[in-house]
Amino acid sequence: MKRALLWLAATALLGVAGAALYLVAVFPRSQPASPEAIEVTPARLARGTYLAQHVLLCSECHSDRDWTLYSAPSVLPTGAGRTDCLGAGQAMAGLAADFPGRICFPNLTADRETGVGAWTDGELLRAVREGVDREGHALFPIMPYFIFRHLSEEDARSLVVWIRSLPAVSRAHPAKAVDFPVNLFIRLVPQPLTAKIPEPDPANSVDYGKYLATIGRCAFCHSPREGQSPEPVPGRLFAGGNEFRGPFGIRLSSNLTPDPSGLGSTTREEFIALFRRHAAPQPVLPEENTIMAWSAYAAMTDADLGAIYDYLRTLPPVATAAG
Ligand code: HEC
Ligand code: HEC
Q1: From atom 42 of ligand 2, which residue's Cα is the shortest distance away?
Q2: Distance, CA of 122 to CA of 256 (rounded, Å)
Q3: Rounded CA gap, 241 and 323, in Å?
């Protein structure tokens, strides 16, 4: 009996080791970085800066933030990474305190040693949409590359132009350390793009709003998800109720469907005004702060916020108790 158990245990272990070897051998999936040199144009720089700082919020994750002000706007130097890391017992607003290991928010400035100054344009493009670093190692999916893969060809290039515009700041971050078995599982997340992503048409307000609500991660935070899945629970897109923990305690994201427990009778103008009131964020007590980066989104254009509203209006209404 004992022997049989031992044998079973040994086979199970071998199975685990085999699965681990397979994961390491086959994943992460990646393809060679594009050899292109991305042309810097004023239009791309303007578009990239707008997207990075006011829609996709690369700036809010890759810079330190001032938690004494409402919605914790990012502080200079933009893109130099954060001085604190997640994990090793350190919590970070909105992210789990029990992070299995340590992960830092890297320096994206032009510094060659501590930033991405030595990366090629193609390597940056690939990191943002396909989730692998220079060496082809999987990036931890706190970096939302699984969402940024929906970025159009032109928008993705504009973002690289923005990264390239960040003046070099020498700021080193501790190396990442992700514990077993999570370090194996994250290898499954990166996926090479196999087709070109078309340009969205700003003239089609609903479609354009959907594009912005996707890449701006509104859908990610405002749709209930199960476990670690990036996909909304079926039928509950934008139903809200996602839980966020931070110095503010627990916050639930709002329902943004047309249901009365969601946007209800909120007009387009009122929706836009919700954002405008946070353009100059005020000092706030930690417990009254929020995870939603209102002050960064406040500089989105009327047309873009209006397009998001137009899209949200087309969603099937879903009732939520959490509201
Ligand atoms: C929710 C937070 C978050 C957002 C938003 C975010 N990032 Fe990241 N990013 C990270 C983290 C964390 C890493 C480190 C991942 C790792 O080391 O495995 C990272 C890694 C990267 C890397 C690889 C750098 C390196 O040194 O390995 C690049 C390039 C990058 N991000 C660019 C961007 C751009 C451009 C945007 C906006 C389009 C963006 N990030 C938005 C959190 C974020
Ligand atoms: C990091 C998660 C996160 C992201 C990303 C996010 N939100 Fe939110 N949002 C929240 C939470 C949490 C609340 C609940 C109220 C609060 O804490 O501000 C909220 C509240 C709201 C509200 C309700 C405001 C009110 O006064 O009732 C609106 C409207 C809204 N978000 C729109 C958006 C849009 C549009 C986007 C994308 C451009 C977006 N959110 C992105 C987390 C997020």
Answers
A1: 292
A2: 36
A3: 7
